[in-house]
């Protein structure tokens, strides 16, 4: 399977949604106003973009941002935690993320040291839970 393609349940391949990086502080503050899921090794915040922003960008984009506060530890520890979050998001967001939604992954105290499979499990559980919340919103409003 080529990179950039997510497996399709019918056996074919469908193009994976584009994942774009959140870089500016207002983008992170916007996502903070949405919903969040807390796990032992990370916190995931998510918020659907408003209609004006969706018209300016491609409709099949997923936003991702990563942060680690100084409470986590020194720069080496914070950078390791963010690298692990980026690697996990690169693997899971194209499959479990919803288009038109921005996600912010926040490192916790043990993000840099927790077992890799545990971190992926926590991230997957959080993304599935957030996806279910956005699916519920679509059924109510749609």
Provide structural commentary.
The chain is 44% helix and 25% strand. It starts with a strand and ends with a helix.
List keywords for this structure.
globular; five-stranded mixed beta sheet; Ribosomal Protein S5, domain 2; 44% helix; alpha/beta; 4 helices
Q: What's the helix and strand layout?
A:
Elements: E1 5-7, E2 13-15, E3 18-21, H1 25-32, E4 35-38, E5 42-48, H2 51-56, E6 61-67, H3 75-96, E7 101-107, H4 116-141
Helix pairs in contact: 3-4
CATH class category name: Alpha Beta
CATH domain topology: Ribosomal Protein S5, domain 2
The 3D shape can be described as: globular
Give the biggest sheet. Answer: 5 strands, mixed
- Count of separate DSSP helical elements: 4
Q: What is Rg?
A: 15 Å
Short description:
This protein is of the alpha/beta class. Helix content is 44%, strand content 25%. Mean pLDDT is 86; it is low at 1-5.
